[in-house]
């Protein structure tokens, strides 16, 4: 069974990485930063998003992802349109964690119910082997 929270969080981070790359192309024209600095910051954030998506197998990946959301929001100091992206992806990140953990709990409950049902069938002699 795949981990729903990890899948949702990784999807958010990968999408965010792509948006960060393209945001850099806009940021170089809309900010007071030099072209190299604007592209360096946004491309750096995009790379960190990709790396963080790979680190989601451990708790550290989720912590880094949360810190990354704050960093992207902070870039809005120099590029005001990044404030919107920071808020948008921050909300998506929180939704991924909340909804993903709820789906994990529900899946675990369904699995426990299934296991209990199979144990009852075995105990009562009604167990049938799947085809």
Overview of the structural elements:
82% of the residues lie in helices and 0% in strands. With 131 residues, the protein is mainly alpha-helical. The chain has one domain (4-123). Helix 1 runs antiparallel to helix 4 and helix 2 (35-54) runs antiparallel to helix 3. The longest helix has 44 residues, at 81-124. The radius of gyration is 21 Å and the shape is rod-shaped.
Secondary structure topology:
Blueprint: H1 4-30, H2 35-54, H3 59-74, H4 81-124
Radius of gyration: 21 Å
Q: What is the oligomer described by this structure? A: single chain
Strand content: under 5%
- Cα end-to-end separation: 20 Å
The low-confidence parts are: none
Keywords:
single chain; 4 helices; rod-shaped; mainly alpha; 82% helix; 131 residues
Compact description:
With 131 residues, the protein is an all-alpha fold. 82% of the residues lie in helices and 0% in strands.
